[in-house]
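Notes to self after the call with IL:
- keep both proteins in one doc
- input above output, always
- annotate only the second one for now

Protein 1:
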Amino acid sequence: MTDDDLLYLPATELRARYTAREVSPVEAVTAVIRRTESVGGHVNAFAEERFDEALAEASAAEERYRDGTARPLEGLPVALKEEQPIAGLPLREGSALLAGSIAAETHPIVPRIRAAGGIVHARTTTPEFCAAGFTQTEMWGVTRTPWNTAYSSGGSSGGSGAALAAGTTALATGSDIGGSIRIPAAFNGVVGYKPPYGRVPALHPYNLDHYCHDGPMARTVADCALLTNVIAGRHPGDPVSVPFATPIPETLAPVAGRRVALCVHLGDYPVAADVEARVREAAAALADAGAAVTEIELPWSRAELMRAAWAHYGAIFAPLVREVMAEHGDGILGYTRDFVERAEAAYRRDGFYAALRTEGRVHADLAAVFAEHDALICPTSGVPAFPAGDDLLGGRLSVDGAEWRFAHNLEVPLCVPFNMASRCPVISVPAGLAANGVPVGLQVAGRPYDDTTVFEVAAAVQAAHPWYTDPSWRPALTAA
């Protein structure tokens, strides 16, 4: 087996091969290290590497396979988003203001991953304070999608998405307050899950922000389910976390008979021709699998949705950044400053209550959809990807030969409405490739706390293409 074949094995299959003694955890971790040394500079997905520790943990994992005590993630490399702290390790969040900062506490998902045998071999890059739909900082440079390095990996979990696509991890974690799991899942051709609010425990005060979700990322829907089942569920340190009584099943049910709503524009979001074509092909694949797919419209205005979202960010996110600035100085990056000032202005203008009223209408509209349908599908982003290295402060993109204008980069993906509808589970799954060689993402949203249905629909979409298992569906790491 070549390194490429080993590195792109689904995590579920890699674990099965460990059990059968066909591959060892040390072999797999060694291949990940070699791959990182080979392509890491092109992709730039890691903020920190723990390779020596990972090899020692892989050796211990081999012993567990020998003595029959292997756990659910035993010996699987897991790349952890740097924003999710580990006590005693750096926590810089891509900001020069925090260059010497060390975390005092550990995120609740970290002990769960380790207790399940996962090997945290690296921590992944983010934009500064996770304040963008791309990943680039002065501290870590530009993180690119391996499918075409002229384009961004997305953000804010951009390092996690890029690492999965490049074969430098088997599983990864992300967090999402406006698409930060789903955008990089789309741009990198991987799977990213925004669980319903409270499903995965978080740290105070982020756990109290209903826009905020920590979640899994992987190359396959089954792998994403595997990691979900490890990190989800009530935690004593997070009083708003909710139980996970019914884990995602290993074998997902077929979608025959499921009722699926297709909404291409979510109201008036612009969508590139490439993206719409792949989304409609995915809808056709679901219909071929026996689902009843009906195209619908939603009465949403992107401007109204974003106005409410900015007021929400002004009430919660902007004060968090200001708190850091008060202690460490105001030397933040331009796109971070733009985010904070835009959010503060919206909060001063509209207040938090007006944002909640808009969120209430979003919930009501989705409730009407889910009264008639089991799931809703739509694009993850209106464009296949953002250009790498561009902070997008100019508010312009060239798409389909025309200039797109936007106030902020988070208005281009179709993600924020589902942070408003935070109890709805949403998964992004790759639906094909655009002409520029970058994958197109499809979102599957479900009824509040109905995790399993969105996984079933996503698995049916993914079955249409042999992502990563066939070498022709792996990135060639096209140089910028």
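Protein 2 (the one to annotate):
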Amino acid sequence: MSSGKSAAAGAAPAVCALFAALILGSCSGGGSPPHAAPARPFAEAGDGQVELSWNAVTGAKKYRIKWSNEAGGELTNVIKDITTTGYLHTGLTNFVTYRYRIVAETSGGTGPESNPVSAEPGPVPGEVEWTAVTSNKAKAKLTDPDDPGNPNPGHTVYFAAAPGATSYRVYIAPSTDQLQGRRPLAAFEPATGSPYRRPLVPVSTPAYYRVIAMNGTRIGFGGPIVVAPSF
């Protein structure tokens, strides 16, 4: 009997220590690896660089970036000890595709990898300095005499050519709020140049436009916001 009690008594401190370690680990947030991968990873290419961003992972102390500039295969290069949810990767070779995955870390280890993202550094186009939008209503009366009251004659978008542009994005939104920033949160239509016509658009519906230049997959900066005439 005494030997059984002695074994039980000896085991008690070990069990208590285990529970204490588990409790302390859960309170500190660093006792186990993150259970989630960084969500919404994004890569924005510039001239000789790629700007990366991602959503924060709960409990993560830092992040690491796995990357490669070789097609296919493993991401063998690692950038460590990143304490923010963004990183500017510089000193890159233009017109080479760089692939990335983001990983969150705690003192207990690393979590799962994010979805892959990629970008190709290269020249960034200049700004579209001016944009104008006209209604095709008057033209519709001339070209369609059988239906001079056509309520959907469309808009024509005119804009200045931007240095270094290979194409353009014509963003359209019902308010100016959706057209802010370098990548507006609005629908866009690709255009090769000016003028760009949008047929069958109700001219009585307010519409705001913004044209931003592209060079390959690289988006430019700036570009004015204009409102289409509603007559």
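Annotation: Residues 129 and 223 are 6 Å apart (CA to CA). The longest strand covers residues 98-106.
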